[in-house]
Amino acid sequence: MKTNWLLSSSAVVMGFFGLVGTFLPEEISNILGISPLPITKVLIQIIGGLYLGFAMLNWFTRSARIGGIYNRPVVLGNLIHFIVVFFALIRQLMEQFNFIFVILTFIYFGFAVWFTFFMRSNPVTNNVKKSV
Q1: What is the tens place of the pLDDT at every residue in 24-41?
Q2: Neighbours of 95 (CB within 10 A)
Q3: Which residues cross the membrane (predicted)?
């Protein structure tokens, strides 16, 4: 199984969230029903920056060997991120149903399962490029 798809797709998703959070903090706070105070906008931009950083990490690591002991910090960082956000979304859905949160919950659950698989897999079967 190729890790290129996993890291590329997570980089695209995180990059999208990062760009939106960085450049549209007032619109996001209005959509979420939060008053767009200066501190709220700055915190949303900080979160957007974190997402962009993770996206760049995933993008530039996408062709590396993943699994077992190889690139374990990259896989573990992504896994923890996706699991924590998944549980936060589940908690939010239990308080108030929102269709956007349902979609995000499925996306985050899928990435959490996918990264769990690669965390416990054999890196030889995960090779992106085979040597000739």
Answers
A1: 999 999 988 888 899 999
A2: 8
A3: 5-23, 43-61, 73-93, 99-119
